[in-house]
Structures are given as C-alpha cells and as structure tokens.
Amino acid sequence: MIPYTVNIKLAARTLTGTLNLQNKTAVDWGWQGLIAQGCHSSILIIDPKTAQTIQVLERHKTNVVKVKWSRENYYHNLSSPYCLRLASGDASGKIIVWDVVSGTAHCEIQEHSKPIQDLEWLWNQDASRDLLLAVHPPNYIVLWNGDTGAKLWKKSYAENILSFSFDPFDPSNLALLTSEGIVFITDFSHSKPPGSTGKKVYIASPHASPAHTKPAPAAAPAPTGAKKALNKVKVLITNEKPTAEAVTLNDCLQLSYLPSKRNHMLLLYPREILILDLELSQTVGVVAIERSGVPFIQVIPCAQRDALYCLHENGCITLRVCRATSAPEEAADPEQNVQELVYDLRSQCDAIRVTKTVRPYRMLICPVNENKAALMVSDGRVMLWELKAHTGRAAANPSSGLLPLYSPVAFCGAPLGPNQKRIPDLCLNSMIGQTLIAGEPLPLASNQQEVQLKFLLTGLLSGLPLPPFAIRMCPPLTTKNINHYQPLLAIGTSNGSVLVYNLTSGLLHKELSVHSCEVRGIEWVSLTSFLSFATSSPNNMGMVRNELQHVDLPTGRCFAFRGERGNDEPPIEMIKVSHLKQYLVVVFRDKPLELWDIRTGTLLREMAKNFPTVTALEWSPSHNLKSLKKKQMAAREAMARQTVSDAEQSSVESSVISLLQDAESKSETSQSISAREHFVFTDTDGQVYHITVEGNTVKDGARIPPDGSMGSIACIAWKGDTLVLGDVDGNLNFWDLKARLSRGIPTHRGWVKKIRFAPGKGNQKLLVMYTDGAEVWDTKEVQMVSSTRFGRNVNYRILDIDWCTSDKVVLASDDGCIRVLEMAMKSASYRMDEQDLTDPVWCPYLLLPRAALTLKAFLLLQPWSGTFTMDITQVDYTEKVEIKGLIQEQLNSLSNDLKSVLQDPELSLLQRCLLVSRLFGDESDLTFWTVASHYLQSFAQARQLSVSAAEGSEESQPSPQNHLDICQDVLCESSYFQKFQLDRVHLQEVKRSSYEHTKKCADQLLLLGQTDRAVQLLLETSADNPSYYCDSLKACLVTTITSSGPSQSTIKLVATNMIANGKLAEGVQLLCLIDKAADACRYLQTYGEWNRAAWLAKVRLNPAESSDVLKRWAEHLCSPQVNHKSKAILVLLSLGCFYKVGEMLHSMRYFDRAALFIEACLKYGVMEANDSSNKLIEAAFVDYARLLRSLGLREGAALWASRAGSAGEQLMEELFRGEGGVPEALLGEDEVELGQESTE
Description:
Layout (H helix, E strand, L loop, with lengths): L12 E3 L11 E3 L5 E5 L2 E6 L4 E7 L5 E6 L15 E6 L3 E6 L4 E7 L7 E4 L9 E6 L3 E6 L5 E6 L4 E6 L7 E5 L2 E5 L13 E5 L21 H6 L6 E2 L15 E4 L6 E5 L3 E6 L4 E7 L7 E6 L5 E6 L4 E6 L20 E6 L11 E6 L6 E6 L4 E10 L13 E3 L2 E2 L2 E2 L12 H4 L17 E13 L8 E4 L14 E5 L4 E6 L4 E7 L5 E6 L4 E7 L10 E7 L5 E3 L11 E6 L5 E6 L5 E4 L4 E5 L9 E8 L1 H20 L6 H17 L8 E7 L5 E7 L2 E8 L8 E7 L2 E6 L3 E6 L4 E6 L5 E6 L7 E6 L2 E6 L4 E7 L8 E8 L2 E6 L4 E5 L26 H12 L20 H12 L3 H7 L6 H12 L2 H28 L23 H18 L3 H14 L2 H8 L9 H13 L4 H16 L3 H10 L3 H10 L3 H11 L2 H16 L6 H11 L2 H10 ...
Antiparallel strand pairs: 1-60, 2-3, 3-4, 4-5, 6-7, 7-8, 8-9, 10-11, 11-12, 12-13, 14-15, 15-16, 16-17, 17-18, 19-20, 20-21, 21-22, 23-24, 24-25, 25-26, 27-28, 28-29, 29-33, 30-33, 31-32, 34-35, 35-36, 36-37, 38-39, 39-40, 40-41, 42-43, 43-44, 44-45, 46-47, 47-48, 48-49, 50-51, 51-52, 52-53, ...
GO biological process, one term: neural crest cell migration
Protein name: WD repeat-containing protein 11
GO cellular component, one term: axoneme
C-alpha cells in the first residue's frame, strides 16, 4: 500500500458556488489552455484537461463582469516569457491585470464607476503586448497600457456601446455593437484615437422585412420552415434609421467577425444567425431555428474551418459546418438552388435540465484546437465537452441531403507516413477536411475516410449549492492520528444534503443526502463519522419534525440517532458533543435537554420539566480519563500478579479488580471505560450551572450567579483554564479559572453568534462571529488579533465559522463561497506552485520562464543523443533539482498518446514544431509553422516535379487538397484564392437587392476579369437611375476594348488622370480592363491601399508580377512606422523567399525559430549550404547553441555548435574546456550528416 502522506499545511483557498447574473459574461478560455471564470467578486482559474480549479483570484470588491486572457501572439524568450496574464473588469468599473501564478495584481485601472462592457487585449503589432482596449459605459472606449495602468487615449461615441469585435484580418477595423446599430471604425490604431466617428449602419430586425410575407409559388415543392423564412431575406442593413415599427432594436445578441474568412461578420438573434458580407453589407447566409426549436444564446465562429459552435437556451451546444457550395451547372432545379452559405448541423451535445435557478450562461471554445467546448451553468457547474471524430458512414438518410465530411489524410500539416502514429482528434482541422468551393474537383483519394462527429463529456466541475450553510471541520490533527488524517470539512446545505470537502485538494470528497430539510448543525464524533441535525418548518402549534442523523463516512451508512423520537416536538436549538466523544447534549427550544451516550446510542437522561431554559452550553475540556487509565493499568498488573501468586491482596485492590472484571465481561472488553466529563450552561437570567456526567449518573454541581455587566448569554467556549462567554449585546467575558479572575470587554459589534477556540495544545486563539463579520482574539493577552466586517473590508456577510487548522479559519458567506483564510482573514490568492493538486496539470506557463523554454527545447530537439526520451534526467542538463523535478512533472502529465507521438521517429521536424507550438498554445509559433510547413513542402514538391519534368516524365498535378486554409487569406495559393473570390462574387450577385449592390458586384467582376458577366449587370441599370447613361457607356467600353495601341494609351492616360484626381477605384478598374493590373497595384500601394493591392495581385497577376507586389508589401510591413515584421515573414514564406525569412528571423533574434527553420529548409532541399548561405547558417546555428547553453542544455548546445563551422568550434571549446576537448563521436556524425544534406 502507498504510504499515506499528510499535508499538515493547508493552502488558503476558496470553494465557490453559484454564479451571480453579472458574472454571466465573465468567462474566457485562453491560448494558455486555462479557463478563467468570474464568480461573484472572485475569479476562478480552471484547468479544462483535468477539471480542477487551480487558482482563485480575490481583490475585486464588486461582481466580476469580464475576464480576458492576454494573447500569446508574440515570440517567447527570456525577456518576454510564457506567463499567465489576465485582465478582469468588475461592476464598479475597476480593471485589474493579474499575474495569475503568484495571484498578485500587476496594476489596477479605474476610469468610471459603471460596469465594464467589454475588454480585449490588442494582439496585432510587434511593438507592445500590453495594450488593453476597454468599453467604459455608457459610450467611451479607452486604450490602456495593461502593464503600467497608463491611459493612452479615450474616445466617446454618440450611442451606448454594448460590445466590440476586431477584424481578425485587419486590426485597424473595429466594429462596435451599439444600442441602435453597428458602428464600423476603419482607422483604429494604438497610437491615437480613431479620427472619425465611424460609419454607422442600422440593423432592421429580420422579422420586419417585407420579403417574409411573400407567398411561395404553388408549383415549387414547399421548402422547410427555416428555408421558407429565409430564402428571401434581402435587405437587412441600411444606412438610414429604419422606421419605428419596422425595428426592434436591441434584440441583436452578438456581433462577431468570422475568423475563417475575410470581411464576413455574423449577427446573432434569438432565432437566427445572419452571415453578412461586409463588402456588400448584405446577408449571404442564414442559420435559422424552426418554430418549435430552442433559441440561441451565443455563437462562436471557428477559425480553422468555416464552422459555428452555437449555444441554445437548453444548454445544448451544436456544431454547424459550412456546406460546400455546388457549382451552378449541377443544380437541375433553379428554385431549389438558392445560392447562399448553408451551415449544416453536424453534431450536438445533450441538453441540461433548465429550472428557475439553473440555466446555461456561456459557452467557451478552446482557441488553440477548437475541438473542446466548456459550458458554464448558473449554479456554478462547468461541463467540459470534447468533439470526437468517428470514422464510418452514417446510416443512409438520403432525405437529409448532407454530403459526408471527410477527414484529412495529414497530421500536423504533413501527409501521414505509412506507419506513423497520429492523434486523430488533435484539433478541428485535423478532424474534418477543407470545405470545397465551386469549380474544385472532388478529392477522390482512396484513403480518405468519412467521419461522424460526436460530443463527449470529459469533465465536470460542480460548485457549492445555494447558501445558507452550516460548516464544521473534522477533529484536529494530533500526533496519534497523523498517519491517516484527512482534513475534511462537512458542509450542511439548505436542501438537506451534507457535502464533505477535502481541504488539501479543495475537491468534493463525498456528497451525502442525509436530511429532508435545511441542515442546522453538524458535530463530528470521530475522524470519519458525524452527527447532523435538521428541523422542518414549524406547524401552527410551533411544533416541528427534528431529524438527528448519525453518518459514517467510509460506508455512507446513516441512521436516525434518536430512533423514533423527533416528530411533533419543539425544534432542536443545538447539539454538543463532549471532548472525549462519549456524550451528546441535545438542546431544544421549549423543552428540557436530553443527554445521550454516543457509544451505545442510548438516552442517559431526559431532564425534568422544571429544568431551566438553556441559552448557551459548552463541555469542559477537563476529564478524568488519565487517572482512570492509570487505575486500569494498576488493576491489570494486579490481575496479572493475582494469577501468578495468590498472595494476600489489599481490600481496595481486590474491589477494583472485581469491578473491572464485571465491567469487562459486560462490555466484552470492546467498550472503553466511561470517564467523568462536565458541561456548563447558562439560563435566561445568566446564571451558570455546572453538571457532571459519569457513566450513566448525572450530578448537579455548583452554580455561579450572573455577572451584572453581561446581557443574555448567547454562547460559551472553554479551553484549558479559560472560559469565554459572549452575550447578545456584544460583550465578551473572559474567565481565568486558575486565577479566579473575570474580565469583561464590550466589542460594540452586536450579538455574539458563535465563539470557537483554535485547536492545538496551548493555542489560546478565539474566533468570534457577529452578525456583521468576525474577529480573532488572543485570550492570553485578552486582545483582538484581526477583524473582518461587512461593508468595510469585505462585501459578503458571514453565515458560519470554524477553525480548520491551528492558524487558519474557514468562513461560510452569503455569496455562496466558503473561504479558508489565514488568521488575519485577509482574502488572498495563493501561489499556484505551492498547491497540492490531485491530478498533475500540463501548463508550461506555470514553470519559471527559463524552465518553460528548456521544456520546449527538450521536446523540439528529440532525439537526444540518438534516443527518444520523455525523461529530462537522461539529458546533460545543469539545473537545480527542484526545477528539474517540476519540468519532469510537466512531461509526466502529458497523455500517453502525445508521448508516443512525440517519441515517434517518423515525426518530421516540421510536424514536431507544429505539435509543440500547439501544446504550448503559442499563437505566433503556430501561425509561423503552419505557413512555413505548407510552403516548404509545396516548393520542395515543385522542385522535384521540375527535376522530373526535365528528365522527361510527364508532370503530375499536385493534389488539390494541399492548399492552405482560406483563413490565411492572402497567404493562400493564388489559384485557390482566385477560385474563392469568384465563388464569393457569384454569391454576392445572387444576393444583391439594390442598385448599390449591383454596382459593387460589377466592379468586383471587372477586377476579377469576368467582363461578360459585368456587362450584363451594368445593362440592368433602370432608365430612371441617374447613372443609367454612365453605366450604359461603361458596358459599351468593356465590350469594345481591343488591344490596339492607341485605345490602350488613351485609357491608360484617362486612368492615371482619374487616380491623380482622387478617383482611385475607378482608375484602377480601367487599368485592369486593359490588363495593366501590375500598374494598378503600384498605384494602390502608392496611395496606401496595401491590402487591396495584395488582393488584386493574387487574383489578376502572373506569379512573377504578383511576387513583386507582395515583396513591396513585405518591405512596407517591415518599415519602422508599421513594425509588423511577423506578418512580413508570413508573406515572404508564401512567396518562397526562404533565405530572406531565415535572415529576418535571425536579425530579429528569434534564434530557435531561425535555426529550426533553416534546418528544415536544408532537409527539404529548398536552401543549399554553399558559400553565400553558409554565413547565415553558421550564425543562426551558433546563436541557437548559445541560447541552449544559457538554458542549461549543454548537450543540445554542443550538437548545434558542432554544425556551425569556425564560430561553433570556439563555443565548443568553451563548453568542454573542463572536460578534455570535444567528444569525437559528436563531430564525426554531424559532418557526415551535413554532407548528405548538401548533396540532396
């Protein structure tokens, strides 16, 4: 058996319960892999993988209304380490930025005193990661520096701002959802407030649009209800304020940009989700709920696939995936083929039982993998769902008309090796393949498998039920019980159940349904059993049903301690168990007390009718057990002597022996002897009575007359020679029984509700509870140690108190929380690394900055000297033992699947980099390696193809499913990007509903080179439209353009004049007509329209010209005033400028990324080690070796230094100075390896 170790020192912690309505929006799932959740004024940090609360942050005075993790979109090194930073805003307008590991506040920010409406960290520029944008009601947005708390700028708007959403593709675009509509800001920047008031658009409620009432044609088959309602929704967004009756303004619940494709936004209404194309301000897709369906509360769009997670009012989470758009030719029936984005329901989880107090609040999706969801319920539960992909066909259901989903045949961005291990449910895009777009052939790869998606409940955290609570800590730790002690806290609740929590881990140990009504009090009778009592509500005679139950924890057995008694009697006021756990006193309101023997469960005495009414009672800690035991030992010895020699005995001894023999035969020697114990109680006049109990005899002792200074006594506590009385007027009276002194102290705090002495020998601290708070007193010095008071230093009322160790108290409060606090009773967050968690948590952010980087390098640089290992001690790593141990704990907490994949020799370097960046939740790494891995492979493939083509074999087309996801936007291949844009314009064209829309469509078609279709649209202009003439001429121009010299030069001249006179868009269009798109891009760039230029280059130019335009863009991004080098690197990757990328990474001091990237380039043969590139390669490798040395990984440093030429040799000498030169093996192997690579 494992030796049970006892953690004597309990960490301060908070057990939380139900949420407040204001906490509804205060949840966030960060890239760091943890969930933050506001619960009243505290913030829980939850680890979703093991379903544990690992930290509770307390500093806010009012309810927390928003929490946001900082983004991890930056390169991590020692100066900008992996750290847990969280911003939280409360109902009084205060924002706190936390360092979560230590539980301390970085800075506090206060602007107004109204609840914060929205918070977001800026993630888009390389300069600073500390900027925090907040909405302060009613109408201000303020940009703060979250590190120092300084205000950078503030801007007010005309309407009340409800929330905002950043455009994930262009950080200068911001949309505000206001009480009247949407405000689009296009000039957001961190350096100055937006200049304009933004473009305001109003949302007409979808139900008000007249299109709904149009009768369906009789001949057509009736579409389903949702289809019917929404086929025809045309106008939704207007620039004028809609008429009063047509609008219900604020029923729009949410607005979000789609991170999966550019310029799309979703609006959520209770019964539908609208997908808007912002270029047209037009609805292009609708997800609607049938009339009998359950309304939406929230929707989260995914980035990796065009999919939506929706939360419904019954707590059900559904996943809807965008259907592939079919090419127009395929549709036989034009009526059925209404072109719009359709999101098919692919999976849903079970609903919860919704009641008045239990309803779903919010759902969260893991931002790294997008395949895990968490549901926050108002009663404090957190349900953790995971999306799983099952291969296999669905039951044939032709009526649903859903195309099957296929799983991609790749792992971590590269095709699967034949016997390679993989994790099928790693993330959303490794579970389902890309959505096809029109004009793309269906992938008929034989190894593609159909998948079904299912939700699986993988974790559940439950909170405490609603207050009131009755709490009692189990008996204290002593030298005798130290081997099996568990610090258990019993909590009686209002519904009659008793929860037992283990305070070492803070987890629920048992939940027992004991009573049928509210639990009033609990007393432990051993380390594993307790008595609890509950009273039902009184009838008209004032009589109740009393329940007194004895519960045994290990077995869960529970029985009525008073047998049949308990119906129709006055309510029990209190129960008190004697110190030796022999006797129990039960005190009633208007009935004399009862005295029970706990060991036998018998009633010893029911007091006479004339017995005084008890107001307070306490057992004395003194008893005669020791003297009895001595006597018993003496008697035992005597018995032993008697059996040996029948010598004469003294009469006293023989009488004791006979007594003992009688007693032992009676109790079968199992029962211990009955010791004498005393208790004191006070009556209504304040007179103190003293009663002695021994065996089954009860004796009345001395009476002490009342103290004139005291009112009616409410409670008594007794320890050692100190007796303390508390009264209803707030006076405490300290009696020193040895010196026979008494001392009264008025606290002026009102009714003394409870007093309890702290456990531990000689520990004379006393905890006192009042109606408005609590105090700790030292009875030796008779002075107050600490105090807490409602409204002064805490914002909760205290319902019950107890000591849980000799220096920590536990308080139950009316905000539904139970707090374990230091004696000073200051609510403090704890350090996460000091805790005892039952399950180890994978979170590198909990390590010291250096250790986290070491862990990352350890995983990236496998194998170590030829062996794949998950044991850091097998590596030459110089570091303190504790830190090594912490790193090893992190490695041990990885799942077996992950360990086996990480130790799989088939896992390529690129796949490893991608997997590790996913594990670390490192956003910047993940984006870089996704793009790098894709283009390294595609350029390497192209290179092989060109080689094989030169040798005469015919060129095979690269497979179509190998393109980057469209969420990478302009980084995608031009051919795919073009198809996507054509598809989109086709959709816009079907959906257009006004002249404005038609004009925009025609413009787009001209830029895309679709002249015939554009002419058709231009000729649709009606004759009474002011631009009828202009459009007709334009149509003529487009159809008659020839490539003759003079017409071209004229058009070019006109275009340049137009551009010079501020008509940039029109000029660009003309240039595109005469195939001068390269010039058009140049003009766009000159006028600062960089994104537009990149778009045009992707859709119109040949690779060489397009590459020039994008290179200019990359240079612009690198310029100091833009400082967006990370974006520039991605653009260069998509152009295959790998050498330049390597140089940039190295010059930006991204040493590990640079070295690993160059290594991958050499492996894939897209960079060659020759005289020109060797300088860069050696510099990168030697700097990486230095970085590894600074982390303490000498073996890794030696490996990279040995490949870095002359500079590396010098480093090798430094490394091995003390150890007699360089190991031969290292050098030999590596030279060979490098040689092979360069000849590839």
